[in-house]
Design goal:
This protein is of the alpha+beta class and 552 residues long. Among the domains are: 155 residues, Sandwich (Tumour Suppressor Smad4); 226 residues, Lysozyme (Orthogonal Bundle), CATH 1.10.530. Helices cover 46% and strands 11% of the residues. The strands form three sheets. Strands 1, 6, 7, 9, 10, 11 and 12 form a seven-stranded antiparallel β-sheet that branches. It has a five-stranded mixed β-sheet with strand order 3-2-4-5-8, with no helix packed on it. A two-stranded antiparallel sheet has the order 13-14. Helix 7 packs across helix 16, helix 9 packs parallel to helix 12 and helix 10 crosses helix 16. It is rod-shaped.
Length: 552
């Protein structure tokens, strides 16, 4: 529809505008058409989105002939034409006429974008208005119908996008004049932002407070765990002190047969049981065993059985034990030796004897390493003579513990008459020998006991030729304080490893790893159960002899 104006007029979104265009891109009063010096001029009325002519933002445009402007950078187009030079006397009641362009005409228009729809006849007046002046006036055209409620123009102009709305109201030209509605929206947005910032600030402050509390708790927990570990290790060495006192009193009581000493021994053992219960509670609270694999749990349990602290096991030791376990798994030696011991009744004798002497029954595996449970085994010649029997006593050590050598003592052949080949007698002698090392040299360190049993015989030094095997060990332990905290296998490995023969270190690893497998042979791929278990259940073990942690 064309509309003719003969007087100045304005265009905008507001209902007070002479020509109303319902578009979010258009300000309430967007432009004004006025006369200046006898000519028509279009002037921007301080719009928010500006007025564009030939793609550039302008403040004013002189009108002559046909002129196209755009209200906003991406708003509706307005077409204006001046039919004749400005002159007075045109009637304000000049007739308005409606014109609906045909589709071909619309397509020929330079601003047609291919999306124009032919309006229904009954909607022509609502959807498409074109306003023209007479020969003396200015003619204004809009680009097409306005879609009410969606802000879209059905004549082909694209709908406003979210990013365009953001640029219009919140980003673009905030320092330039804007309409009342735009300013109200911006102010409301600023107030919402302030409230959001305040709310976010409270949330951030709350989260920060929680993080501080969590960090403080983590630090406190770390210190608490460290303190508990120190207390646990200190309690462990307290148990070892009790073990040494019990072992010494046991030896004295057996030598003298004194009933008063036997009563004292009972009291010491009861105190040791209570200490062991406290220690087990600390270990449970620290959750040490829960962090381990099933195989590692068995390694740690065996360390505890042999009176070594689980909390000071070197990482390298665990790896070395796993390597030796692999060796046992690749051989039939372990299972064949266990079958021999069981078939000949050696297992029960060894377990019961060691329990009687308050020693860990797992020293059973020392005989496996020494002789594969061969009662008449014969060792290689040494400077102290030829070792014989299941426990491989050299002649002098055997005699010291009451074992009479046979007539073939100097020959490398089996000698059934030699008491070192008498399993019950030799096992009793071995238990007393181990107990002496346990109390005098190793300070209740089971692994240091194993090492000492083998050490002297393989320490090669001309200066030590005149010493007995145990005297050699004593010589090599000189300078190490004689208390459980200083004389333990882990500390010896870390600080004095060069003093011990390599063969002895390997010897300890093989006994220890065999004891680990023996705890749960099926876990390691063997088809039998713990060979000691049924004999342990039949015996009442000393607290020294068997106090491993419960299985998790």
């Amino acid at each position: 529809m064309e509309r003719v104006f003969t007087e100045p007029f304005n265009i905008g979104r507001g209902m007070q505008a002479t020509l109303h265009i319902d578009s979010g891109r258009v300000s309430r009063i967007h432009v004004e058409v006025i006369e200046e010096g006898g000519a028509w001029v279009l002037r921007d009325a301080g719009s928010t989105n500006g007025t564009y002519h030939n793609g550039e933002r302008v403040e004013r445009v002189s009108l002559s002939g046909e002129t196209t402007v755009r209200l906003g950078k991406d708003g509706p187009f307005v077409y204006l034409s001046v039919d004749a030079p400005l002159r007075a006397g045109i009637s304000e009641s000049q007739e308005e006429r409606a014109v609906v362009p045909t589709e071909p005409e619309a397509k020929r228009h330079p601003f047609y974008d291919g999306t124009a729809q032919q309006p229904a006849a009954q909607d022509t007046q609502r959807q498409s208005d074109t306003y023209s002046s007479s020969a003396n006036g200015a003619t204004q055209h809009n680009t097409g119908p306005v879609s009410r409620g969606t802000g879209e123009r059905a004549g082909g102009s694209a709908p406003a996008s979210v990013s365009q709305v953001i640029r219009h109201y919140f980003d673009e030209r905030k320092d330039e004049p804007a309409g009342e509605r735009t300013m109200m929206i911006r102010q409301a947005f600023q107030e919402v932002q302030q409230k959001q910032k305040l709310a976010y600030g409270k949330v951030i402050a709350g989260v920060a407070a929680l993080l501080i509390v969590a960090l403080g708790f983590a630090i406190w927990q770390q210190f608490r765990v460290a303190a508990l570990e120190q207390s646990t290790v200190a309690l462990f060495y307290e148990m070892k002190e009790q073990d040494i006192a019990i072992a010494q009193l046991r030896l004295l009581a057996e030598e003298e047969g004194n009933d008063d000493l036997a009563a004292q021994l009972d009291n010491l053992e009861e105190g040791r049981r209570r200490t062991a219960e406290r220690y087990a509670g600390y270990v449970e609270e620290l959750g040490l065993y829960r962090r381990l694999t099933p195989e590692e749990r068995e390694i740690y349990r065996v360390a505890r059985i042999f009176n070594e602290s689980e909390f000071t096991i070197p990482a390298g030791f665990v790896r070395e034990v796993q390597e030796i376990i692999d060796e046992w798994q690749q051989s039939t030696r372990f299972q064949n030796a266990i079958r021999r011991a069981e078939a000949n009744g050696y297992t029960r004798d060894i377990v019961e004897t060691f329990i009687d002497y308050g020693l860990p029954p797992e020293f059973f595996y020392l005989a496996l390493q020494e002789s594969n449970f061969d009662a008449c085994a014969v060792g290689p010649p040494t400077r102290w003579g030829i070792a014989k029997g299941m426990w491989q006593f050299i002649p002098s050590t055997g005699q010291h513990y009451g074992l009479v050598p046979g007539p073939r003592v100097e020959q490398r052949v089996p000698d059934p008459i030699d008491e070192r080949c008498d399993v019950p007698k030799a096992t009793d002698a071995a238990a007393r020998y181990l107990l002496a090392i346990y109390t005098e040299l190793a300070q209740a360190s089971g692994l240091l006991v194993m090492a000492s049993y083998n050490w002297g015989e393989h320490r090669v030094s001309p200066r030590l030729d005149n010493l007995t095997p145990l005297e050699v060990v004593q010589h090599d332990l000189e300078g190490i304080p004689q208390n459980p905290q200083e004389r333990n296998y882990w500390r010896f490995l870390s600080e004095h490893r060069d003093r011990m023969p390599d063969q002895t270190k390997d010897y300890v690893l093989h006994i220890f790893s065999a004891a680990v497998i023996g705890q749960n042979p099926r876990l390691f791929g063997f088809d039998f159960d713990n060979p000691l278990q049924r004999y342990l259940e039949d015996a009442v073990a000393s607290p020294i002899a068997h106090a491993p942690p419960a299985r998790p």
